[in-house]
Write a structure and sequence with these properties.
globular; 14 helices; 317 residues; mainly alpha
């Protein structure tokens, strides 16, 4: 994870230096285009991962429903946390000012439709076995694309005017955002666990602790649960964790314009969880403005750090 953070930080610094040297304004547009293309490719690969797993496809109805319930609960809890914190810090007037302007669009836009289309195409490609060639590659294509995304996002952020002023605006109160986001996610997942028969409270909290970090959380759950509950149970719970956190990431990507306009700029940051610092960052900046950058980075990094500790803790109960 440190390499991801470092690549983003270095890219921001390089972008800032390029802007200082007088780089053409169209370079920002190029960086944004690369960011958008990277996101669509990552979503496509997410879909392919789902489609290529026969266990998930066979039990997609039951596993998918449980995952969807927990994803909705965790995302809703985080959105509420972001909305309450922003109201507490800035009041109603601050919220109205933050969500006004042309950058907030209502309803689904072209990017939203393309994201959904990329997911469905990925599932179809995975189910058809068209992505089998990727299994023999030494480096996961998704990892390469993620680095391309972070570099393009960093360059785009660095080349925009006013970056120094934005970074100086970081306040200690920003630390409350990831803390409350995690707490409200767990609270809502605990409530949702009462509607899920197959898994207990601690299992649902382990899934919710993924905070959008689907790969790490699912792998941890599979390994930690196997010795105590057997391979079958561990695999199914890991699949729920994978799907639930994928759903959370996709929901944030699709709903960021709506969340920003209705609940304030902290809402999509909180909903993104660990992905606020990478995959969801371009959409957050586009719809909430560059001034949300410090909050998104701090929230994403701290949410990311919390995942292995919380997942391990709840799996041990």
């Amino acid at each position: 994870m440190m390499s991801l953070i470092l690549s983003l930080a270095v890219s921001i610094a390089i972008g800032y230096l390029l802007a200082f040297a007088g780089i053409p304004a169209r370079a920002v547009k190029v960086a944004e285009t690369v960011s958008s293309a990277s996101i669509f490719l990552l979503v496509f690969l997410l879909g392919a991962q789902i489609g290529a797993d026969p266990e998930i496809l066979r039990n997609i109805a039951s596993l998918g429903l449980d995952a969807l319930v927990l994803a909705i609960a965790g995302t809703a809890g985080s959105v509420l946390a972001g909305w309450l914190l922003y109201r507490l810090l800035y009041g109603e007037a601050g919220r109205k000012e933050a969500v006004s302007g042309d950058r907030h669009r209502q309803g689904p836009d072209k990017g939203t439709l393309m994201t959904v289309a990329a997911l469905l195409l990925g599932v179809a490609a995975g189910a058809a076995g068209l992505m089998a060639f990727a299994e023999g590659l030494e480096t996961d294509p998704a990892v390469i694309i993620l680095y391309v995304l972070l570099v393009s996002v960093g360059l785009g952020v660095g080349m925009r005017p006013g970056l120094a002023a934005i970074l100086k605006s970081i306040r200690p109160s920003i630390l409350l955002l990831p803390v409350l986001s995690v707490l409200f996610t767990l609270l809502f997942c605990a409530l949702a666990s009462t509607a899920i028969k197959e898994y207990g409270l601690w299992d649902c909290l382990a899934v919710g602790s993924g905070m959008g970090y689907y790969s790490l959380s699912s792998v941890l759950i599979a390994g930690l649960k196997e010795s105590a509950f057997g391979t079958s149970f561990a695999t199914s719970l890991a699949a729920v964790a994978l799907l639930s956190n994928i759903f959370r990431e996709l929901a944030t990507l699709v709903l960021t314009p709506f969340l920003a306009s209705r609940f304030g700029p902290y809402a999509p940051v909180a909903a993104a969880g660990a992905t606020a610092m990478d995959v969801c960052l371009p959409g957050i900046l586009k719809n909430c403005g560059q001034e949300i950058l410090p909050a998104a980075l701090v929230s994403g990094i701290l949410s990311d750090f919390s995942v292995p500790f919380l997942v391990s803790f709840f799996c041990s109960l």
